[in-house]
Amino acid sequence: MLMSALLTLLTGAGLEACQNPQLPVPVPPPPPTTSVTLYSPTSSWNAPVPGSASVDVNSATMLRTVVAAAQAQGFVIAVKEWSRPLHYTDSTTSRHTVSLTAPWAPASTMSGVPIPANAAPDPAGDGHMVVIDRSTGCEYDFWQAVHNADGSWSASWANATSTTGPGWYPHGLSATGSGAAGAAGLIRPEELREGEIKHALFFAYPDTRAGGPVLPATEADGRNTGSGAIPEGARLQIDPGVDLSTLGLNPYEMIIARALQRYGMILGDTGGGVGLVAQNPLSTAVPYPWGEQTYVDLPQSLLAHMRVLTLGRPYDNAGYVEPTGCATLS
To answer: Which residues of the chain have pLDDT under 50?
Structure first.
């Protein structure tokens, strides 16, 4: 494994460029300026809530905990902190071996990972970072990523998946609390510019239920045992009978509300308050309509119009790495 890692480093374009200044450092491909579809069309992220969807028998009880959390700590979009940079690469991008440092991690390295020279993780404590390789359709998700002084990369944990799959790690061990892929459910600026978000939104809240997730989630970090606690994997939806035009929403709030009504939001992590997640602007040149804000407040009245859809079945098959052709974990 040591020899393999050494060969990877010695053949990396970045090191060659340092040894030979005649070689140009690869320029990362620009992020898309129009929206792209991530994951399968039938994924729980991309499929609209069917008209026949039923409401969970405990919806009212669970929803009260959401409203209370928002009243206490807000209903926000995380933009510049606790968000996710989304970096793009291609076949010219240098490959790295990433050290995995969490004491519980079932692997110590992830090799063959393309990381552009200008990549940076989110500055908040989770240090999330997502890299999507356009040439292979592979996605690399990082938790507490660190770009070290010697140019190497490490992370508490990282894993890889396909951008044509379901947007969930089948046996957990993701970079999120629920098994969700890192780019799943993100609000992206090009979507707001185009006037439509065509997928469900990822959200976090404080009272995630202890005892495991429900599908489509494949792992959970919940600890709350209260009757109103919501399991990761639950989907909330603005009641389709609500006339959004009567709610006094500004243009970007209306785009988000339409997505919450058509696709809903899926509980993907434990966090403070009730929070949706945007692509961190450090990884895109497309501006957001709200300007330079770290967090964007959303009308809490939207939550009062929501319902919790019938929960999926409990899932307890988490805890091991699903091999992919995207990277080698060892």
So the answer is: 1-23
Q: Which segments of the chain are extended strands (E)?
A: 75-78, 86-89, 95-100, 109-114, 129-133, 138-147, 153-162, 201-205, 235-238, 265-270, 274-277, 295-297, 306-308, 328-329
Choose among 283, 280, 326, 44: nearest CA to 178: 44
**Cβ–Cβ contacts within 10 Å for residue 171, how many?**
16
Taking alpha carbons only, the member of 167, 116, 110, 73 closest to residue 323 is 110
The CA-CA-CA angle for residues 103, 105, 109, to 5°, reads 110
- Provide the pLDDT for residue 19: 40
Instruction: Give me the pLDDT at residue 310, please.
Output: 98
Q: How many residues does the chain have?
A: 330
Enumerate the H helices of 195-272 as residue ranges: 251-262
Q: Are 159 and 110 in contact (CB under 8 A)?
A: yes
CA nearest neighbour of 139 among 157, 159, 122: 159
* Residue pLDDT, tens place only, 211-233: 999 999 999 999 999 999 999 99
Nearest alpha carbon to residue 216 among 227, 199, 197, 231 = 231
CB distance 169 to 181 below 8 Å: yes
pLDDT of the residue at 13: 37
What lies within 8 Å, CB to CB, of 194 at 6+ separation is 34, 35
